[in-house]
Amino acid sequence: MSPFVPRRIYTGQRDFTMCVSRYLLYVGFALVPMAIICIVSNILLLFPEMTYHFLLDGHVTREATWATGLWASGFLVLLGANAFIKRSRTRGFVAARTQMFGVALYSCLGLLAASTCCVVSATGLAQGPLCLYNSSSGLTWGVPLKPVPNRHAGYLYNQSMWSGICLRPESVVEWNVVLFSMMGICSAVQAVLCGLNILNSLVGLVLGQGIRP
Questions:
Q1: Phi, psi for residue 139 in degrees, rounded to 5
Q2: SS3 of 131, please?
Q3: What is the pLDDT of residues 48-59, one digit of tens each?
Q4: How far is residue 115 CA from its own chain's centroid?
Q5: DSSP 3-state assignment of 213?
Q6: pLDDT digits (tens, 9 = 90+) for 153-166
Q7: What's the pLDDT band for 93 if we cut at 50, 70, 90?
Q8: Is 182 within 8 Å of 37 (Cβ atoms)?
């Protein structure tokens, strides 16, 4: 056997671990702006018409008050992103494997948090906003645009319902559609990246990281 084979194997392994480290670093940096978008979007959802009165009176869409954009796709994902960036520079055989195990746990946490935010955002988007509207009993606060079986599939499929039904807050339908859509898309991408990062960290556990990216 050629004496150069072990060196080629080592070099190939080293190149592969560089890919593991770089992916970890890129994921960490990619998650940060999406987490910020989710945080800002959720905050804005709590203040339709840019006023706090609706929040104090309890007239804010239920899914917005759950604040998954703040604590799930926001804080928890930022926590994971910080860990990914720091651990991408870990050196040493034993240290790298220990850190990769931590990365796998943070990735699972990020996947769960982002998935939660994505589901809540999709629900809030499908159900429609809480608003003041004319019902058979007069002006009422409720969710008039949510899908009704055997009647209509919801306002998302009928834009004629976007105006004229919700009286207050003003333009709340467009407000919720844009912000819940942004939260849903960003959290879905976060979930995909964290899911792929679980696989990446498992590769790091097997191969280790002996060098910096």
A1: -65, 130
A2: strand
A3: 999 999 999 999
A4: 7
A5: coil
A6: 778 888 888 888 99
A7: very low
A8: yes
